[in-house]
Write a structure and sequence with these properties.
The protein is of the alpha+beta class. The chain is built from five helices and six strands. The strands form three sheets. The protein has a two-stranded antiparallel ribbon with strand order 1-2. The chain has a two-stranded antiparallel ribbon with strand order 3-4. Bound molecules: zinc ion.
């Protein structure tokens, strides 16, 4: 494992250990948030191990992207959920619950990339603009 991957995992472990339910938690519940809450609270270490496996499997490209093979973005099955690998990596490492309006964005415009520092949280409107930029760039 590279020192960089180890650092990302350490930060993820710290974020997960500091996760707590806010006072709004019950009001904001939905199946997706319930799923992630369960992952953060009950399966944190298993989730980190899965992220480690994905990052080690990914191929480091010349442009810095860490890419999983396949024509379309990889999905990850974990504890009853099925999420995009980039979404899984970002959500586990940041330990941040997202609402329906929130999405995981790629600063590199490569949807097969799972490199943690190429992934940011954003809104659906942001993502729409990203998609337009991505097409414009021919990626
Ligand atoms: Zn990337």
């Amino acid at each position: 494992m590279t020192p960089e991957i180890q650092t990302w995992l350490d930060v993820g472990r710290k974020n997960l250990s500091e996760y707590y339910r806010t006072e709004f938690h019950e009001n904001l519940r939905n199946p997706s948030r319930d799923y992630w809450t369960k992952v953060f609270e009950d399966y944190a270490e298993a989730a980190i191990v899965r992220v480690a496996d994905l990052l080690q499997e990914a191929e480091l490209q010349a442009d810095g992207c860490m890419v999983l093979g396949g024509k379309t973005p990889r999905k990850v099955k974990f504890r009853g959920g099925r999420k995009y690998a980039y979404q899984f990596v970002h959500t586990v490492l940041t330990a941040m619950l997202t609402s329906y309006e929130d999405v995981v964005r790629h600063t590199c415009h490569n949807r097969n990339c799972i490199r943690p520092d190429h992934l940011i949280s954003g809104t659906r409107a942001d993502n729409y603009q990203d998609e337009r930029d991505r097409r414009y760039l021919g990626r």
